[in-house]
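Intended use. Records such as the Metal-dependent hydrolase entry shown here are meant for training and evaluating sequence-to-structure methods. They are not intended to support clinical decisions.
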Amino acid sequence: MRLTVVGCAGSFPGPTSAASCYLVQADDGEGRTWNVALDLGSGALGPLQRLCDPVDLDAVGLSHLHPDHVADVSGLYVYLKYRPGGPGRDGPLPVHGPFGTASRLAEAYGLEPGESMSDHLAVHVWQPGTPVRVGPMTLTPVAVEHPVPAYGVRVEGPAEDDPARRVVLAYTGDTDACAGLDALAAGADLLLAEAAFVEGRDDAIRGIHLTGRRAGQAAADGAVGRLLLTHVPAWNEPGLAAAEAAEVYTGPIATAAPGLVVVL
């Protein structure tokens, strides 16, 4: 299983990156590559096309419904609906998200009341703790703390060096420290953690985002193998989130950048 960062800018697209989108891929025993997009935020559909034809996506998992995580689903719908030669896939693309995802996506696209995207997007509501199977991968949503209904996602799949061994990618979506974050991170091989806030600057704002230090603490408490920090806004000082995380987590730490590939 491997992760490619498509977009990692926090809260809005930055000058060098689209907003949140992560392509997770795994090969099955017959050599077929399965493709899952975790979030599809503002500006992400463009760079995603350099990595994967959107027609070849097998599922989209939406952590929550803020625009920096879902805005480009509208563009994806256009791509599937109007692509010359037809959609190029059998059946609608599964999209998993919080309750209200179908109506939010339809409203964002501008559909009339009663119209649906279901001819090309099959929307399913996350059920906390209930795994969703996508080829050789399983996606398990875990409720986390954010001002709107939000989920982190544990993705389990075959290790690249030994397909018989299972590895876990834990993606936080947007969250503050909470019991759900602890459950999400526990024992993960890679924790892909947002770190939008800064210690000292944002201490009075809770229930929305992690700082680098809080992300590092989750990694330490969960005994994760590696920590990859993401969702850092353009106004934050580069490297600061990683420095905060290193104060409490002694494992490998990196900061996401577009095109970064992590092999699990």
